[in-house]
Structures are given as structure tokens and as C-alpha cells.
Write a structure and sequence with these properties.
about 450 residues; alpha/beta; 5-stranded mixed β-sheet; 4-stranded mixed β-sheet; 24 strands; about 30% helix; binds uridine-diphosphate-2(N-acetylglucosaminyl) butyric acid
Length: about 450
């Protein structure tokens, strides 16, 4: 089943929206609850479908998950963790990439794990070779089967020295979730240090782990025998915050994003200012405005933290279609994250995609012939169109284009947007957008 949003664009977004806990942290913190001997409480959990998927998978493995007293609070009780039926796990195939992070915790708890084929957004090949390599280094035996991957450990997993070929967020989390209960010390070089990773480390420390993070992307973990549950409030979603900021800029609007946190968004804020957007930071959030006058074109390269996040790129590109001159974009994290621009071109944008690296940030994709750079020429008026969203962030980007465009757009497949944006149609309405959903989102 796929829902459609009918958007009548052309009006600036104005008002206030609140961002919830970060999808890319909350789902991992939920997995971490598997490692504790006692109950965990996680607050500020967004009502998004990726959370529902992870909840379902935890429940299949015997974790009792319930709502706490506070809105957005989850209580996770891992007392009865058990092996789940492969057929049940398989039913989750294709719905998320998070299952791969169950490996270490399940092997510690049960001596075995099975993970289905992985889903997630189609923004590149998204292999799990780094994940499997590090699990093998801890001593896990990896058996690839047609329906998924089975892991086992003949004896307790052991700490190890790992150097990642690339500072992968998910693989860093895999190492953390596995090393905390492995025997001995693990040293991880070239680790990802995204704020979501650091918040996961905070959770693991609350649970009883010993983890240090050096300034040179080196993380050291001393394994311990047991961990307890945790209580934690998730950090706000800086991707959602930047998405609303980009929507404000592209529509010439004025949006206060409650919960947006400056330290996690420094690089985005610098870029927003260079384009000609204005922002005001206060204790509770950030107000993003289009101050009037023309926007400026820029050169933008995505990178791992503290660089410009790949997930910020897609929403911001719509604002670049409204900037004067040529903007140059180089996507260095995912090889295939520019497909969403096809729809923007149909709506009137001038965007040319290139296989060459249009920038100097070291990148794995130029030599491999991937369409990962673009030149955006503006400003161009956008016209409403019929669109089918390709992935989560690309979908939100196309939604912003529909809001900025003249006329009416029909945006199909917006269930993909439910994966990461809580109640986004209600939030749009609160900002004055004319956007009507053809059916209510599934309850998550
Ligand atoms: N990679 C490999 N092999 C692996 C793992 C990663 O080659 O085994 C490559 C990927 O193909 C990619 C690069 O390494 O080219 C970076 O991938 P990373 O592992 O850092 O990404 P991830 O953990 O799969 C998370 C977020 C993404 C976000 C990236 C980068 C979650 C669930 N997903 O993905 O979020 O873009 O980090 O910050 O945390 C989104 O929210 O829409 C989203 C895609």
C-alpha cells in the first residue's frame, strides 16, 4: 500500500515545528537494550516506521517493549531474550538495515544470531562487508544462506584491533555493540564520530561499559562481563531539523525548529548562511529564515562528521535551485544519492549529474564511474508534477520542491517518508502548507 500527498505549492512555510529524537540513534539505542540484564528506558522516541520495525524485531527475540509514562518513552525489558524463528525474522527482510546490528548483542546473549536480507534506502549498493569482517575478527563464524546470514560463536567473542577502511557509522556501532561484552580490549581505528555514535557511547557507558574516544578517530573499549539497563533521552534529530530549515529556505519562509541543536549542526549552519539563509539560535531551538533577496550558489561536498552530512544534501538541493548561478555538488558518502534530482528536473530545475568528482574531498566513486556529482543552475521556477518518491531523504527533498513549486503536485509513495519523519503531514499543516494525505499513516 502506498499513500499520496497532494501539495499545492508556492506559499512560504511559516511557524514552528518540533523535532524528536534522532532516528539514526534511537534505533541503535533500542538494540543496545538487548545487552543489559535489566530494563532500559529510552525517551524522546519518534513515532516513525523504522522504530516500529526495530520494535517488532526486538519483540520477536523476547524483549518486552511498552510505552512509558512520558509521551515518546519506550520501556525495553530484555529479561527473556530468546532465539526467534527464522521464518518470523525473514518476514522483516527488506524493511530496514538495523537488523545487522543485532548480531553482536544476540551472539553474546544466545551464542547465535540470524539476520534477514537487509533493506533501507536504495541510495547505493550498501553492502555489509565491513560488518561481517569485524564480526569475524571478534571470533564469530559467519554463514551466508539464501535467506540471510547466520552467526555463531564457538566461544566468547574476544576483543580485537580493527582499522576500518572507511569511517562507517553502522560498522562503528557494530564494533561498539559487540566489543562492550567481548573478552578483553578492542581498539577501533578510523571510527565514525557522528553525534549519534557518541550518544550511543553515552548509553553504553550508562550500562556499565568502559569506552574512550580519542580525537584521532580511535575508540578503545574494555569488555565487561555484564551490563545493566539504561535511562536516556535521545539527542534531537539533526537531519529532520536541517530538512525543515531547507524547506524554510526553499519556500522563502520562516520556521522555528524546536529542539534543533547548534553544536550538532555547525557545518549545516555555515552552509545555510553562505547560501544566504539566516538563523537565530536560542536555548530551545533554531529559527531559520529566508531574509529576502537572491540566494547565493555554493560548492558543496558531503563527508563524514564533522563534514557536511550526506543526509542534509538532498533537502538543501531544492534551495540551491533557487540560488543565483552555478552550485557544484560532490556526494562522497553514497555512490547513488542523486537519483532524486530527476524529478526536480521534470519540475523545472536545471541540474546536470556527472560521473567525475567535482571537488577535492577524497572520494571512492570517481574512479568507479558513479553519477555522484552535480551542477545546479539557478534560479528556476519550479512547477508542480506527479512524483514517486525514491527514498527517505530524496522523498523529503521532492516534497520541499512541491511546496516551493507553482501549482499542484501529487507525491506518491510517501510511506517511505514515514520511515524517518514523525507526523510530517501534520507538521506541514502547522506551517501553513496546503498538503492533503489520501490516507492516515499506519500506526507505529
Ligand atoms: N559501507 C560499505 N560496507 C559496509 C558498510 C558501509 O562499503 O559494510 C559503505 C556504504 O556503502 C557507504 C559508506 O560505507 O558508501 C558509509 O556507510 P555507513 O556505514 O556510514 O552508513 P550506514 O550506517 O549504513 C547511517 C545512516 C544513514 C546515513 C549514514 C551516513 C542509519 C540507520 N543510517 O547509515 O542514514 O546516511 O549513516 O551518515 O543510521 C537516512 O537516515 O536516510 C540514512 C540513509
Amino acid at each position: 500500500m502506498s499513500s499520496t500527498l497532494t501539495v499545492t505549492g508556492g506559499a512560504p512555510l511559516k511557524g514552528s515545528v518540533a523535532v524528536r529524537g534522532a532516528k539514526n540513534f534511537v534505533t541503535k539505542a533500542m538494540v543496545a537494550s538487548l545487552l543489559g540484564e535489566t530494563t532500559s528506558r529510552l525517551r524522546n522516541v519518534p513515532a516513525i516506521s523504522d522504530v516500529a520495525v526495530v520494535r517488532g524485531l526486538l519483540e520477536l527475540h523476547g524483549v518486552r517493549v511498552s510505552e512509558g509514562a512520558e509521551d515518546g518513552e519506550l520501556v525495553l525489558d530484555p529479561a527473556d531474550v530468546e532465539v526467534a524463528a527464522v521464518a518470523d525474522i525473514d518476514a522483516h527482510a527488506g524493511s530496514s538495515r538495523i537488523p545487522v546490528l543485532f548480531c553482536g548483542p544476540l551472539v553474546h546473549r544466545l551464542g547465535e544470531a540470524f539476520i534477514p536480507d537487509l533493506g533501507g534506502c536504495r541510495i547505493g549498493d550498501r553492502p555489509i562487508n565491513y560488518h561481517l569482517d569485524v564480526l569475524r575478527q571478534f571470533g564469530a563464524v559467519v554463514d551466508k544462506r539464501p535467506s540471510g546470514i547466520a552467526l555463531s560463536a564457538p566461544r566468547r567473542l574476544r576483543g580485537t584491533r580493527i582499522a576500518l577502511p572507511y569511517p562507517s557509522v553502522g560498522t562503528t556501532e557494530q564494533v561498539l555493540l559487540t566489543a562492550v561484552r567481548a573478552e578483553g580490549v578492542t581498539e577501533l581505528r578510523n571510527a565514525a564520530v557522528e553525534p549519534e555514535v557518541l550518544d550511543l557511547i553515552a548509553v553504553l557507558q550508562k550500562m556499565g561499559s568502559i569506552i574512550s574516544v580519542d580525537t584521532d578517530r580511535v575508540i578503545r573499549i574494555e569488555g565487561v562481563d555484564t551490563l545493566t539497563g539504561y535511562e536516556h533521552r535521545a539527542l534531537p534529530d539533526r537531519i529532520e531539523a536541517a530538512s525543515w530549515a531547507s524547506a524554510a529556505l526553499a519556500t522563502g519562509g520562516d520556521v522555528y525548529v524546536e529542539g534543533a541543536r547548534q553544536p550538532d549542526m555547525m557545518t549545516f549552519l555555515n552552509t545555510f548562511r553562505k547560501i544566504g539563509g539566516a538563523f537565530d539560535v536560542d536555548d530551545s531551538g533554531i529559527r531559520f529564515t529566508h531574509p529576502g533577496g537572491p540566494l547565493r550558489s555554493i560548492a558543496l561536498e558531503t563527508d563524514v562528521h564533522p563534514g557536511f552530512m550526506t543526509d542534509w544534501q538532498q533537502p538543501l538541493v531544492v534551495a540551491l535551485t533557487q540560488a543565483q548561478g552555478l552550485s557544484i555538488l560532490h556526494e562522497t558518502v553514497y555512490e547513488n544519492r542523486l537519483g532524486f534530482t530527476d524529478a526536480l528536473v521534470r519540475m523545472g530545475a536545471t541540474i546536470q549529474v556527472y560521473r567525475e568528482c567535482l571537488g577535492s574531498t577524497p572520494c571512492r566513486f570517481g574512479a568507479q564511474d558513479f553519477r555522484h556529482s552535480a551542477v545546479v543552475s539557478g534560479p528556476t521556477r519550479l512547477q508542480g508534477a506527479d512524483i514517486t518518491v525514491p527514498d527517505l531523504r530524496g522523498g523529503f527533498s521532492q516534497l520541499i520542491a512541491a511546496l516551493a513549486a507553482d501549482g499542484t503536485s501529487r507525491v506518491h509513495g510517501i510511506d517511505l517518508i514515514d520511515r524517518g519523519y514523525e507526523h510530517f503531514a501534520d507538521k506541514l499543516a502547522a506551517l501553513g502548507a496546503q498538503a492533503v494525505r489520501d490516507e492516515e499513516p499506519a500506526r507505529v
